[in-house]
Amino acid sequence: MTITDYLSLTLMITGAIFFLAGTLGLLRFPDVYTRLHALTKADNLGLGLIITGLILQLESWTVAGKLILIWLLVLLAGGCVAHLIARGALQRNVRLWKR
Amino acid sequence: METINLLIWSFDALLGLCLLWLAWRTLSAPDLYKAVVLFVAFGLLMTLAWVRLDAPDVALAEAAIGAGLTGALLLSALARLDPAVDDQSIVTQKDNRPKSESVQWAAFMSLILVAIGLGYSVLSLPLKFKGLSPEVTEQLVNSGVENPVTAVLLNFRGYDTLLEMAVLLIALLGVWSTGNKPKYDKPFSSPVLDFLSRLLTPILILVAAYLLWVGAHAPGGAFQAGSILGAVGVLLLLSGWRLQKDSSLLLIRLILLAGPFAFVAMAVITMMIEGQLLQYPPAHAGLLILVLETTATLSIGATLAALFLGGPPHLKNEESP
């Protein structure tokens, strides 16, 4: 294995850990807003890390461009949808969690 | 190598078990909303299963139609259910069904018959059979496209796709003939949603065109591209876009008809020239398939969006106040 392989392995494993943390947050956090926070923050960064790891393994720039485009679209859609869900929940008077 | 194989094997096994479990949860969920969400999750895992089976074409279609648009359709159907008949009473109605022993026995016996029939057909398949893929590969040069899936769907068995277009149109006519008014939800006003729909609409149309074009030599094609267009329609409807002109009502109906009509016209013309239904002359097959797929994409997109609307579209100023 070359240095690039180790680098992309590290990036992808770190990305997977972010996904795991996001899923854990979705399951364990107390209300809609905190769950959204866990999901979007962790998944956006996790996907970015996994895609960077994958790009290191690629030989064609067009495929790399497509992967980056996918990440950007997921970032955009994830952020906007999280905002919309949170707004919808606020309008329906879903209470914020308080300790 | 051994550990990698073991890992892959356990991933597949886990995926299969998750699918079965999700299917069971979907069917047994007492809350209909929960059932729809579980169904969407099932569709996404099913997509993964198709990828594992080396069928990216089916995976694309499953992700776009099975998980995405069907989910949206089910949610809009759920919103139309009579609020007086809430989930609870649907569940109790289910429980009040007569469950006499004879009915249960009949159900049990028919299950046994289905199992025997399925088992027999699996066992009667020849043990060593390469499938039809060698023949498809052999004939691929004559099909006008390089992607074997597109070649089968649009050329070798073009009438399947013709019938599918007809099924979609009939489904839409069925929805329209229930006499339901289209359900224009009060648009959820939010600058973020406006921004998102303005940005995504052109990108998604571009993606649909790309999928349509790439279908000639890689996974993609009319149904995948059409479902992306349908998703654009759903997004626009949700963010408050409405028809403005009289002429667009007619235009939409023309687009709905274009795909099936182009297919039937092509079938008739090829019947007269080549003597067989949808038998394209090999020299022009590629172009003819592209024309058919383009009209089919537009029709599929319009049909799916119209199904989501749930009734014949009308103009903005005719909306009930």
Key features of this structure:
heterodimer, A: 99 residues, mainly alpha, 83% helix, 0% strand, elongated, B: 321 residues, 2 domains, globular
Q: Biggest interface between protein chains, with counts per chain?
A: A-B, 8 and 9 residues
Share of helix among residues of chain A?
A: over 70%
Low-confidence stretches of chain B: none
List how many beta strands of chain A DSSP finds: 0
Distance between the termini of chain A: 49 Å
Query: Rg of chain B to the nearest angstrom?
Result: 23 Å
What characteristic shape of chain A results from the CA principal axes? elongated
Explain briefly what this protein structure is.
By secondary structure, chain A is mainly α. Chain A has helices at 3-28, 32-56, 61-91. In chain A, helix 1 runs antiparallel to helix 2 and helix 2 packs antiparallel against helix 3 (61-91).
Describe this protein's structure.
The complex is a heterodimer of chains A (about 100) and B (about 325). Chain A has 3 helices and no strands. Chain A has helices at about 5-30, 30-55, 60-90. Chain A is elongated and about 55 Å long. With about 325 residues, chain B is mainly α. Chain B has 2 domains: about 1-80, no CATH class; about 130-320, no CATH class. Helices cover about 75% and strands about 0% of the residues of chain B. The mean pLDDT of chain B is about 85. Classes of the chains: A mainly alpha (about 100), B mainly alpha (about 325).
